[in-house]
Amino acid sequence: MRMNSKNLKSQNQICALYTRVSTSGQLDANYTSLQAQQDRLISFAKSRPNLEVYKTYEDGAYSGENIERPGLQELLRDIKDGKINCVLAYKIDRLSRSVKDFHQLMELFDRCDVTFISVTELLDSSSPTGRLVRNILVEFAQFERELIGQRTRDKMHQSAIMGYWGGGHPPYGYKAIDGKLIIDTIESENLKLIFDLFLKTRSLAKVKAHLQLLNITNRVGKLWSNTTIDYILKNPIYAGKLRFNGNLYAGEHKPLISEDDFNAAQATSRLIFHTKTKIKRTFTLKGLAKCGYCDSHLTPHYTQKRHANGEPYYIYYYRCTKTLHYSNSVCKVKHINANELETLIIDYLDQLSKNKEYLQRSVDQVNQGLKDKVNPLKKELIRYRSRLDEIETEIQNLVKGIARGNSSVEALETYLAKAKDEKTDLENKIITIDGKIKSYQFDQFNANTIRQNLLNFKNAYNSLADEDKPQCLQLILKDVIVYKDRIVLNIFDLPEFSAGSQLRLKKLPGPDSNQRPSG
């Protein structure tokens, strides 16, 4: 049943809080942008005596380019059902980045007598002036974005037609002087060598290996990767051309290779060395195992060998991804035997579930560390809130002074103007610190719960089919960090849980001479 908006306006306004972030990366922190927006909106609602919070609607990792967002759609349904007559958002663009969609939303809000308030832009659609400013801001924001984009594209297109380089980091083989591409003497010779080697070998891996043998690195001193070499071979700038919007234009810079050699490189197929054999083995730590030195994932890999009778067999590894792109010399871990690593992880989780005293001691240490982080924050919180109380007391004293004739309205206005920025700063600090405290308190752990989860995990894991075991591990492990002499397990219920006994059970096999080329 629809609420009577007139009655509501005479009483409290029932408001919805809407929050949104565009990317999933903004959801990974302990105190996320969504939480920060919500806390700011709640603080604003508390500062208005006629606002009553109904619910928070959130969309994590959704673009504002359209309105096909679950949180927003739920909000619109509740508006149509008459449950809400006010919507708070951190900024206008949290609701929509499209002028068309925004106006459609505002038309719906107006039909349903719903007020929209952007708390950081101080826009309130309950007044004609607020609605006008709101619409003007949205129109100009989109107009400015489109105008800047169009001007930039037009300028780049015209520059390409005239043969001018578009700017940015100069491509390998050139240096930029006064906005023009000038041949770099040393890099240009290496660039020519890359093309020459590729046209002779037809292999990115062989080009990479030859450059490494000659100790030729890229511009920043790192080893070449297959991807970088392939990008160079496909870049028409080395044949004196500029590419823009899929079209080629003659550049004013000097080419480093002939057009015939460039075309030959495009027509040459890249040799592929990896086997077509599909290995029927489940790598249970795929996506979980990481290198402790370069933070690269350890990816499933294998080496094929043959028995005396000629029958093939395989040795399975988790190999550092960085070595696949470059060479074994770039990483200390290189690769680790898959069977050994997987067995070690499962056995250790089983041992951990049976050692109640050790688990309790470790949990106590982690929880104490969290408390040590919370206590200073609580002291800061007390200090900031005390200062806010002082400001409020001073305001009340001035108001009482006006009533008694001991103070003036001008003195009150002067103090309010002076205290406004400090008060806003204090409120923001309180919201931030309160969020951190809640995050740490949320991370408190219970040893019995963790132990029970581990026991349940062991029983479930042993009963699963091989293809289902990776998913089971992902439910309890954040990741597995592999070093040369130890392995660190990050368990969902207990962060960075690392014990001195977590050493490798055996020495890892050395690099295999039969291992396939990484390219």
Describe, in plain words, how this protein is organized in 3D.
It is a single chain. This protein has 519 residues and is of the alpha/beta class. The protein folds into three domains: 5-145, Rossmann fold; 174-267, Hect, E3 ligase catalytic domain fold, CATH 3.90.1750.20; 275-519, no CATH class. It has 16 helices and 16 strands. It has helices spanning 5-10, 33-47, 70-80, 92-95, 99-111, 128-161, 185-201, 204-213, 226-234, 259-267, 321-325, 338-354, 356-404, 409-442, 447-463, 469-476; strands at residues 13-20, 51-59, 86-89, 115-118, 123-124, 174-177, 180-183, 241-244, 247-250, 289-291, 298-306, 312-320, 335-337, 477-482, 487-491, 494-497. Strands 2-1-3-4-5 form a five-stranded mixed β-sheet, with helices on both faces. The protein has a four-stranded mixed β-sheet with strand order 10-14-15-16. A hairpin with a 4-residue loop joins strand 14 and strand 15. Helix 7 packs across helix 8 (204-213), helix 12 (338-354) crosses helix 15 (447-463) and helix 13 runs antiparallel to helix 14. The longest helix has 49 residues, at 356-404. The radius of gyration is 32 Å and the shape is extended. The model is unreliable at 1-10, 272-277 and 494-519 (pLDDT under 50).
